[in-house]
Amino acid sequence: MAGIRLSQAYLALDMTDTAPLASLATDLTGGRTSGLRFLDDAGTLAIVLDVTGLAEPERKPLEDRLREALLAREGVSSIRVAMTAEKKALTIIAVGSGKGGVGKSTLAANLAVALQRRGVKVGLVDADIHGPSLPRLMDSEGTKPEAQGSKLVPVPNAYGVPMLSTGQIAAPGQAIAWRGPMAGKALEQLIDARWGTIDTLVVDLPPGTGDVQLTMIQRHKPAGAVIVSTPQDLALIDAARAISLFEQADVPIIGLVENMAGYACPHCGEVSDPFGRGGAEAAAGEMGIAFLGRVPLAMGIRLASDGGVPPAAGTDPTGEPFHAVAAKVADWLDARKAR
User: Which residues make Cβ contacts (< 8 Å) with residue 88, sequence separation at least 6?
Assistant: First the structure.
């Protein structure tokens, strides 16, 4: 008789209680559950929990709360939770240049910080494998990333932009003498990490058009590229090569930034242009791409960067050019999402 009563109770639950249980699970998890059903007449409940986008520490507490709430309901004796997660497609913004020494890494760091202050869930990858400088720029030197399973966990910082760099792994001052395949594998590990809720990555590429750039384009195709150049002709010639590489791979060019554009004398205030002025803007017009703005050659930017304080993180006027560039990049991202 007890078995009959249990079977009848199970049938009643299956017919009348599944919908309330499903509604409870939906409310508790913000719509992350599906497939709720009883597996047997002993009250074993099965449910699928989608944990896409949740960081590892967030998943278990959510599962525990779900179990506790459902087990409190009459007729539910045990629960089998199947957690699933789609591999999230990250929006990658590549920051490149045709040659070194044009301030590309400084621009990348400040672009990421400025985007974060605009509400973008952004992370930062130092893909300049052989010459990483972002740990200094983001005050993350000496902090090594941890690993969860086979994936690296990005290193947090005071600016709300988690970051990964080979500079966090190698000893300070150690030469990173890796050939192309090994550098490509390192890039893979930096990008395919546990980014949690991050949906946009700013990737600081090495200068030029070599192995790392090709690996990036082939395996982790950027949504768009920001090109950094100084105003003089020699830098613009190489910037054009970088633009050509991205265009051949059908990677949209978000725009061109003119760095080190104008120097204000700290004594008299007179502005001079040791590298010229307007070359990048003119080149952008000739190539039919957007001009994102100018960043001056300023002592304040150099001092803050050397000190691990991105100007975009503060309220000093030296951060304003980076915020202006970030505003245009953010508009480009919004327009892309709307398409």
Answer: 52, 53, 195, 199
Question: Rounded CA gap, 93 and 204, in Å?
Answer: 9
**CATH at residue 30:** 3.30.70.2210
d(Cα 91, Cα 220) in Å, to the nearest integer?
A: 10
User: What single letter denotes the amino acid at residue 109?
Assistant: A
Burial tier of 269 (Cβ tally within 10 Å: 0-12, 13-18, 19+): exposed
Closest CA to 301 of 262, 254, 255: 262
Q: Would strands 200-204 and 146-148 be described as parallel, antiparallel, or unpaired?
A: unpaired
Whether the Cβ atoms of residue 241 and residue 276 lie closer than 8 Å to each other: no
Per residue in 49-74, pLDDT (tens digit) is: 988 777 778 889 999 999 999 999 98
State the Rg of the chain over Cα.
26
Clarify whether residues 285 and 241 are in a common domain: yes
Same-domain check for residues 99 and 162: yes
Q: Does the global pTM surpass 0.85?
A: no
